[in-house]
Amino acid sequence: MSDFTSNFWHLYIAGITLISILACAFFLWASAKTRVMPAADNTTGHVWDGDLREMNNPLPRWWVYLFIITVIFALAYGLLYPMFGKSQGQLGWTSHGQWETERAKALAAVEPLYAKFKGMDPKELAKDQQAMAVGERLYMNYCAQCHGSDARGSKGFPNLTDADWLGGDGQPDYIHKTIAEGRQGIMPPMAAAVGSAEDVRNLAHYVLSLSGSPHDSVRASQGAAKWGACAACHGADGKGMHATGAPNLTDQIWLHGWGEETIVKLINEGKTNVMPAQKALLTDAQIHVLSAYVWKLSNTN
């Protein structure tokens, strides 16, 4: 992989770009210097399809001048803007810098609106129709891709409407922190701690039994003895713990799928889920409104 991150490649791209521009200029100059001795009828002697003859007429002047302008423009553009490899250009322009400038203008335009909401308690903010309309737009732009437009999530992405929270109490402060800083949930592979493949399968049936899901009662009774490997995170009663981010296994809410095979795979392979931090994209005021909106999704009464 180091071959693709070395300094050679930016020089290669810069060289190819510059050579291509200069080659255009050279061929334009060469074609202007080349003289073809025409026949008496001003043709070059090339004939196609029996009677289609190539005339020896020069290129139109406007076309030649336009070609020269494009070559000059390309060289000037490459001098001013990042076009030749790692060269930043004399103007120091970057797409990220332009995005930051445009973002700053957009935030300045809506700052008075968010100033109105800043001092409000999130639970009171959830009652404000204007704030919730703004929160909905923020949700659709930054959250719906994973949690769904209806906030009910999908496999691997939590439902935000059911009041089932993995890493906290679901209060606005926790939601605000999760949106801003993100969250990582890790279940390590546990097969080695559980025992044999049969032990893992028995434990899977015990897990199913905790929520009253269909299971083999004989296997479940045998798997109960292996529950100790899981109790440290999920609790002795299987109801999970916010401190570890371990889900409640008794409520029939399955984030990563349901059934014996799914649970066996999770025990064997573990699972890592990541909620990315949004503080680089959203201001604290925007997160404040969005937190109130997300809190309201599971507190509609």
Describe this structure in words.
The protein has 301 residues and is mainly α. The protein has 3 domains: 2-80; 101-181 and 281-297, Cytochrome Bc1 Complex, Chain D, domain 2 (Orthogonal Bundle); 186-275, Cytochrome Bc1 Complex, Chain D, domain 2, CATH 1.10.760. The protein is 52% helix and 7% strand. It contains 13 helices and 4 strands. It has helices at residues 8-33, 61-80, 95-118, 122-125, 129-142, 144-147, 172-181, 191-194, 197-210, 217-223, 228-234, 260-269, 284-297; strands at residues 43-48, 52-55, 183-187, 271-275. It has a two-stranded antiparallel ribbon with strand order 1-2. It has a two-stranded antiparallel ribbon with strand order 3-4.
Shape, please? elongated
- Domain count: the total is 3
Flag low-confidence runs. none
Q: What is the count of β-strands?
A: 4
Q: Structural class from helices and strands?
A: mainly alpha
CATH level 1 class label of the largest domain: Mainly Alpha
Per DSSP, the total helix count is 13
Name of the CATH homologous superfamily of the largest domain:
Cytochrome c-like domain
Query: What is the string of helix and strand elements?
Result: HEEHHHHHHEHHHHHEH
Strand order of the largest sheet: 1-2
Radius of gyration: 33 Å
DSSP strand content: 5-15%
Q: Mind telling me which CATH architecture of the largest domain this is?
A: Orthogonal Bundle
Terminal CA distance reads: 55 Å
Largest sheet: 2 strands, antiparallel
Q: Helicity level, as a percent range?
A: 40-55%
Average of pLDDT: 90
Q: In CATH terms, what is the fold-level topology of the largest domain?
A: Cytochrome Bc1 Complex, Chain D, domain 2
Subcellular location: Cell inner membrane
Protein name: Cbb3-type cytochrome c oxidase subunit
InterPro entries: CcoP_N, CcoP_N_sf, Cyt_c-like_dom, Cyt_c-like_dom_sf, Cyt_c_oxidase_cbb3_su3, Cytochrome_c_Oxidase_Subunit
Subunit structure: Component of the cbb3-type cytochrome c oxidase.
